[in-house]
Amino acid sequence: xxxxxxxxxxxxxxxxxxxxxxxxxxxxxxxxxxxxxxxxxxxxxxxxxxxxxxxxxxxxxxxxxxxxxxxxxxxxxxxxxxxxxxxxxxxxxxxxxxxxxxxxxxxxxxxxxxxxxxxxxxxxxxxxxxxxxxxxxxxxxxxxxxxxxxxxxxxxxxxxxxxxxxxxxxxxxxxxxxxxxxxxxxxxxxxxxxxxxxxxxxxxxxxxxxxxxxxxxxxxxxxxxxxxxxxxxx
Length: 234
Prior knowledge:
Elements: H1 2-24, E1 31-43, E2 46-57, H2 60-78, E3 85-97, E4 104-117, H3 120-130, E5 135-142, H4 145-173, E6 179-190, E7 196-197, E8 220-233
Antiparallel strand pairs: 1-8, 2-4, 2-5, 3-4, 5-7, 6-8
């Protein structure tokens, strides 16, 4: 009888402890996931371009010297446009073999110049000058980092307000008095603009005026901020 009484006492103590622990655990009910967006079309204010030269020569040393000279000329020309950022890109040299005899025929070298600027007219004038020796591989327009961050900060506030509005609508739809915010994530999503690809036949810009600068249509990019999280109805 003593053993039975002791077992009953221990069982009752264990059940009481489990009941207290269960009462202390948070109740995960009336939980709803909410998502809201804020989007804005922003004018592209930064221009990026890639130009390249491609030369061939039977002597690799002469080929290297030729490409180096043209690259130095390009950098010197770019100094006339301080509002345009210019840097050298990739540079490669590789052998060309005869298709029939598979003997070394010549060497081919390729080098790139990358251009970045918010002054579209100055950039297009520089490109126009460089195209005396270079070809244009691509041109595209983007939103600058400064402008993007400014817009994203504004959209973060707008997305947060949209999130709260949706949470309130759901609260009323479920006949609840209020809600508590459980978690919230803010994410940005930038859509890259379509680049303007330059065809091989477009060896030169058509001058828009006497200065040689081409009028550019930079277009727009869509910037989106997403707010998603969880609320609990009261």
